[in-house]
Amino acid sequence: MVRLYTNDVSIGYGERFIVKELSVSIPDHKITTIIGPNGCGKSTLLKAITRIIPHQSGAVLLDGENIAKENTKELAKKMAILPQTPESAAGLTVGELVSYGRFPYQKGFGRLSKKDYEAIDWALEVTGTIDFKYRPVDALSGGQRQRVWIAMALAQETDIIFLDEPTTYLDMAHQLEVLELLQKLNREQGRTIVMVLHDLNQAARFADYLIALKDGEVVKAGNCEEVINHEVLKKVFHIDAEIGRDPRTNKPMCVTYNLLRGEEKDEEAVNTLYAASGTRN
């Protein structure tokens, strides 16, 4: 089932297009991860889908409706986003920060209702941050802060959560902590998770569906078997990858790789050009 998809979306800054006539579908109740080299349009696509930035052409549709025409508060009840570098929470307690997730439901003078407080405590419980409720956000570790930001997104009570590189600046243990939390939210609550990740093996381990981007275009979209393979990684990252199996999940994983250089890289580019034009047998 697909509730959210883009139809020939082009996104740019000024006269420079980052994403070009892109059509992607986000499977419902699954974890979708977007991968690709720096500058390929991953974060730009996330921002356009969540209406943080406008798109120049095409459409983003949720439940058959163009999000460009949606009321902002109503859209915020359907999707939440955790940006790559969340705004500073200086001076706020954890509970105060998470309460911001209730903004779409507030009326009048913006006072929190009993239901709001229940949603806040629930989000803190689910993310394991309830013990930090009255502590300053600045006093927490990186992993704890990231869980608090996720709690704020959960307090919005949306079916779809977007995260732009949620493991950035975290050590290995805290990266795993955050990804396991997102997997738990997906499996136990059916949340649709869409995130950008740089680590290919983390993407393969936690994603149900992968979208590989390069130069603002989809090179391959599908399950881990279809995307994490030698040919796709060669096209997307210009690497010669050795693919093995994760002994714990049996999913494909990148064991090691070399950069494509000189003639190898030139030959790969020529093959891509011929394939696109259909002039090589």
TrEMBL record:
Location(s) in or outside the cell: Cell membrane
UniProt-listed SUPFAM superfamilies: P-loop containing nucleoside triphosphate hydrolases (SSF52540)
GO terms (BP aspect): iron ion transport
Presence of the UniProt keyword Iron in the record: yes
Record Pfam families: ABC_tran (PF00005)
Any GO MF annotation of the entry: ATP hydrolysis activity
Coiled-coil annotated residue ranges, if any: none
Family annotation (PROSITE patterns): ABC_TRANSPORTER_1 (PS00211), ABC_TRANSPORTER_2 (PS50893)
Topological category with respect to the lipid bilayer: Peripheral membrane protein
Main location: membrane
Keywords: ATP-binding, Cell membrane, Ion transport, Iron, Iron transport, Membrane, Nucleotide-binding, Transport
GO cellular component: plasma membrane
Domain ABC transporter: 4-240
Listed name of the protein: ABC transporter ATP-binding protein
Organism per entry: Bacillus yapensis
Organism ancestry: Bacteria, Bacillati, Bacillota, Bacilli, Bacillales
